[in-house]
Design brief:
The structure is a single chain. The protein is of the alpha/beta class and 330 residues long. It is 55% helix and 18% strand. It is built from six helices and ten strands. The strands form two sheets. A five-stranded mixed β-sheet has the order 1-4-7-3-9, with no helix packed on it. The chain has a five-stranded mixed β-sheet with strand order 5-6-2-8-10, with no helix packed on it. β5 and β6 form a beta hairpin. α3 runs antiparallel to α4, α4 packs antiparallel against α5 and α5 packs antiparallel against α6. The longest helix is centred in the N-terminal third of the chain and has 42 residues. It starts with a helix and ends in an 8-residue tail after the last helix.
């Protein structure tokens, strides 16, 4: 009887273990599905607040929150947050105004991710970040003031915006009046004129076959770099005069370099057109080849001219906003 009982018990144990082994993959799969589904929910961003530029002039960030900036493609400011990570009251948005402007105040006030469930706590530990992270879509006509921000501000240089009060001010090398800066600019313009003359000479030497393409490209890169270097001297004088930050200098110089690049890409196409005409005149190109090359160059020229006009407009906009309309490039 005892042997029979032990035999039955052993069979039950074996069957139970076999059933456990057979069911284990399905159980693991179900757990994975639950965890994956929860993670997707835990990481899902949702629109938290939305307004238009008619209502605000400046966004002010306060407290413990990390902010990622994105470019708004319309006139709306949008604030996105991760819905499951923090209590509802950990992020506050409030509109205020004074006699001059209206503000959107965004404040973070919770240092750790919240949540009351087991998975909330697990994912909070897995995502061990100090502050909540939000994403703010900002139009080009809105200012940013991050002087009260306790977290980090990401993407500042990847978006266009009206102004920023973040970062250290450019250190003055000595007080200069605006007239003194203009005199320095005139002296620098003379240096730039020499660089541009050298570039014209280099281009003609390349067109005439007196220098090869590699030397021409290297010379072009070197001289345009020299022009940008000279202009940065002026920008830094003006930045000190107008109490701008390093971020402002970066924005302005990025637009300066973009304008210079577009200008000489356009000139390069005109130079190639000249070389094609010369080759055709010397019968190095057939009429069919010449026509085909001109058609390609015309398409490139239109695109390059549009890019140049856009770069020039962007530079003029930054000059107007940050430098009181100072004309950096004549």
């Amino acid at each position: 009887m005892l042997k029979h009982t032990m035999l039955v018990g052993g069979m039950i144990t074996v069957l139970g273990f076999a059933g456990f082994v057979l069911c284990l993959p399905f159980a693991v799969k179900n757990v994975n599905q639950i965890v994956t589904s929860y993670r997707e929910e835990f990481d899902k961003t949702e629109l938290f607040y939305e307004t238009t530029t008619e209502d605000i002039n400046q966004i002010r960030f306060f407290g413990d929150v990390n902010v990622r900036l994105r470019q708004s493609e319309d006139d709306k400011v949008r604030v996105f947050r991760v819905s499951k990570r923090m209590p509802d009251d950990s992020l506050r948005v409030l509109r205020t105004q004074d006699a001059e402007r209206s503000y959107l105040n965004i404040t973070g006030n919770t240092e750790k991710y919240g949540g009351s469930g087991v998975l909330d706590r697990v994912f909070s530990l897995m995502n061990d970040q100090t502050f909540e992270e939000i994403t703010v879509y900002i139009p080009k006509t809105v200012e940013i003031n991050a002087s009260g921000l306790g977290g980090d501000l990401f993407g500042l240089l990847q978006v266009e915006y009206l102004n920023s009060y973040t970062g250290a001010l450019v250190e003055p090398e000595g007080y200069l009046t605006l007239e003194e800066i203009r005199q320095n600019h005139l002296a620098i313009e003379q240096s730039m004129a020499q660089y541009e003359y050298d570039l014209e000479t280099l281009g003609q030497r390349y067109a005439g076959g007196q220098t090869d393409q590699e030397s021409y490209r290297e010379g072009l890169k070197e001289q345009t770099g020299n022009i940008a270097y000279e202009l940065e001297k002026v920008v830094r004088m003006l930045a000190s005069h107008y109490q701008l930050t390093e971020q402002h200098v970066t924005l302005i110089m990025d637009s300066v370099r973009a304008y210079i690049d577009c200008k000489y890409q356009y000139k390069d196409i005109l130079l190639r057109r000249q070389m094609a005409q010369q080759s055709f005149a010397e019968q190095a190109l057939s009429e069919e080849e010449y026509t085909e090359e001109l058609q390609g160059l015309e398409t490139e020229e239109q695109a390059a001219l549009q890019a140049l006009e856009e770069a020039q407009a962007k530079l003029a906009r930054y000059e107007s906003i940050y430098l009181d309309g100072f004309d950096l490039i004549a």
